[in-house]
Write a structure and sequence with these properties.
two-stranded parallel sheet, 130 residues
């Protein structure tokens, strides 16, 4: 994915990360032979500070026994809620803008949806893979 032109990921200040990790999840459930990986990252470094700093927020459901999918189940639904941002957003005093999402469910998942709900009302899907 690519950041919008007016957004950057800050590096080099005291508040920034000391390092970046690339984590690759391979998907070859049929174990096909001869499949080669050509993935990678391309970073562009510039001293020109962008209007907005990007951050990364991981949301999801902590693994529990409630997530054990019953044998032969045609579907299985599990819901989690994140209220963790509320105090930070109040302190920030302005909204955050989500510009990308990467749903992830390993091989057991066939559909993943991340919804934005504000004041109890559905706003939109932030991420959707069905």
């Amino acid at each position: 994915f690519t950041y919008p032109d007016h957004v950057g990921f800050s590096l080099g200040t005291e508040d920034d990360p000391d390092y970046i990790v690339m984590e690759t999840h391979y998907d070859n459930p049929d174990q096909m032979k001869g499949v080669r990986d050509s993935s990678g990252l391309r970073f562009y470094y510039t001293p020109k500070v962008r209007q907005y700093d990007a951050g990364i927020l991981e949301v999801g459901v902590n693994p529990t026994d409630a997530q054990i999918i019953p044998p032969q189940a045609e579907s299985f639904d599990h819901t989690g809620f994140c209220y963790c941002l509320d105090p930070y957003l109040k302190e920030l005093g302005q909204p955050i803008n989500v510009f990308a999402a990467m749903p992830h469910a390993h091989l057991a998942g066939t559909a993943v949806r991340t919804k934005l709900v504000r004041d109890g009302m559905f706003q939109s899907y932030l991420g959707r893979d069905e």
